[in-house]
Amino acid sequence: MALTKNASAGSKNKGSDPVAAATVVAQRVAGPAADSVDRESRFPVEGINALKEARLLSALVPVEYGGMGCTISQLSQICNILGQHCANTAMVYAMHQIQVACLVRHGQNSPYFKAYLRDLVDRQILLASATSEVNIGGDVRSSICSVEYDEAVIRLRKQAPVISYGEQADDIMVTARRKPDSPPSDQVMVLARKAGTTLEKTVGWDALGFRGTCSCGYILEMRGSPDQVMPGGYDEMSARTMLPFSHILWSSLWLGIATDAVNRARLFIRDAARKKPGTLPAGATRLAEVVALLQSMRSGVQDSVAAYESKYDDSDGLSSLGFALSMNNLKVQSSTLVVQVVAQALTVCGIYGYKADTKYSVERHLRDAYGAGIMINNDRILGASASLLLVHRDE
């Protein structure tokens, strides 16, 4: 079932526009708490609780399960809006929705996961993920840990260098080898329910940016039912859902960070112009340059959303080398441009953008922006793209 079919029906079903509801949360709740979340390196509880109250954690779930049936375009807008006010809230929301997308896209043939989707809607469950693993070098398409079966029980132990908001999440989606004798690339996705899961913290989170994601390292041990293993392989899930959703939603929230930085630069130039009527402020030309960069970034995100929607039901198209390259390019381009845009905005605002206590400040924006190129390191993505280009021929 496509995620792009029920947007209007879903919004009507819940009596509200999800993008408008997210705007209210961003402006009234997440934004005012953003500085505190960053300064204290704490989970953005205010913003996430407000999103739960607005029923937005289940925005992507189809209407038949009680969700809003949002499109990827609407989710992109929501992440953009949240990113303009609190990047940490936006990142947690994006990572949650990436997991929900996998459930919606690949879990509906399972009675267990169909029931879970309804539970997610009713309880506004917050999902985290554990896809990376110690000693595999950041390659999320390989696993050391495996699902072990003991009659009607499964067990799993994974040493994850990062599980963002692992302690705050209700449940965690975990990648692992299908069986102990499976090769590293034969992976499945397992739903680790909180009641059957323990987390032993191994690494803390005192970072330059995205401080509120609480991306600590853990040894995760879970025990549960075989029904908690999602149908199908993670290879298909990654190509058709995980990769495009990740790169689109991350890029959307990075666009939000860049947009707010440019808005602050605009405000600075306008205020400077009012002080000296008839005189073009010194940073006005630089502002024009950064607005052009922002537009390029926005167009890249919008084009990628449209491309994904057009191919959503085309399994061959989503598995093609060309599509994988385009999604890789989106991630690299967006994560590069967000740093450039915010740095340019800082130049426009000068010392007032550099300080943390002015209305023109972009210091938090810049620290968060530098995290974009590290989340699945751009060098790794470019290396993967280089390998694809050896066999890909442009149409």
Tell me what the structure shows.
The chain has 3 domains: 7-125, Butyryl-Coa Dehydrogenase, subunit A, domain 1; 128-228, Beta Barrel (Butyryl-CoA Dehydrogenase, subunit A, domain 2), CATH 2.40.110; 234-389, Butyryl-CoA Dehydrogenase, subunit A, domain 3. It has helices spanning 7-14, 18-40, 45-53, 72-85, 87-106, 111-123, 234-275, 284-311, 315-318, 321-349, 351-354, 363-369, 378-389; strands at residues 127-130, 148-150, 153-164, 171-177, 187-193, 197-203, 215-224. The protein is α+β, with helices and mostly antiparallel strands and 395 residues long. The chain has a 4-stranded antiparallel β-sheet, with no helix packed on it. It has a 3-stranded mixed β-sheet with strand order 1-4-5, covered by helices on one side.
Number of domains: 3
CATH fold field value of the largest domain:
Butyryl-CoA Dehydrogenase, subunit A, domain 3
CATH class value of the largest domain = Mainly Alpha
Tell me the CATH superfamily of the largest domain. Butyryl-CoA Dehydrogenase, subunit A, domain 3
Question: Could you describe the largest sheet, including whether it forms a barrel?
Answer: 4 strands, antiparallel
Instruction: Report the total helices.
Output: 13
The overall pLDDT average reads 93
What are the secondary-structure elements, in order, as H or E?
A: HHHHHHEEEEEEEHHHHHHH
**What's the total count of β strands?**
7
Q: Which ranges are low-confidence, i.e. pLDDT below 50, for 5 or more consecutive residues?
A: 1-14
Report Rg: 21 Å
**SS-based structural class?**
alpha+beta
Shape: globular
Strand order of the largest sheet: 2-3-7-6
CATH architecture of the largest domain: Up-down Bundle
Helix content: 40-55%
Ends distance: 29 Å
Strand percentage lies at 5-15%
